[in-house]
Amino acid sequence: MADTLKEILLDSSRRPAVVTDLQGLVDEEVSDKGGVSGAVVKTSFAAVKKIKPGIIPAAVDSLLDDFAGALEPFYGDYKTSGGGDFGAYLAGRGDEASDALLGVTDSRAETSSRDSIKKVYGKLRPNGKKNVEEALPRLGQLIDKHAATV
């Protein structure tokens, strides 16, 4: 079994499957959103996909290394504490884990040269922490799935 997230998620033989699964996770999370804020997320998500088809898998792939790095301390602690369900572990540390992941996207948005992406990100960011925290159980389960294949 792999010891690090980089070994699990970034291996060239597994990376395409990881990116596909993460894209599916994003689609599921957006689809599950409800209410007014959910409508904003769904509309913004559709707008981003319309601006540049294929942007979601490309973005996931380009962010994957940084996401793995941001989650590495959590994964190390999880493994040290005996493992189990990484999704439950992340949910239990939702505040810290979501801040770590949003730090990656905030940094990327700040350096983007595309004003349309910055504008959409700016609209989504106020609810970003809540949305990321809600996705943590699925994210951890996805990582557990890929860790089991190593």
* Shape call: globular
What is the total tally of β strands? 0
Helices, by number, come to 8
Mean pLDDT: 90
Main beta sheet: none
Low-confidence stretches: none
Any key phrases for this structure?
single chain, 150 residues, mainly alpha, 8 helices, 0% strand, globular
Question: Care to describe what's here?
Answer:
With 150 residues, the chain is an all-alpha fold. Helices cover 81% and strands 0% of the residues. It has helices at residues 5-9, 15-32, 35-51, 55-80, 86-92, 94-111, 115-124, 128-147. Helix 2 (15-32) crosses helix 4 (55-80), helix 5 (86-92) packs antiparallel against helix 8 and helix 6 packs across helix 8. The termini are close together.
What is the element layout, followed by pairings?
Elements: H1 5-9, H2 15-32, H3 35-51, H4 55-80, H5 86-92, H6 94-111, H7 115-124, H8 128-147
Helix pairs in contact: 2-4, 2-8, 3-7, 4-6, 5-8, 6-8
Describe, in short, the structure shown.
This protein is mainly α and 150 residues long. The protein has helices at 5-9, 15-32, 35-51, 55-80, 86-92, 94-111, 115-124, 128-147.
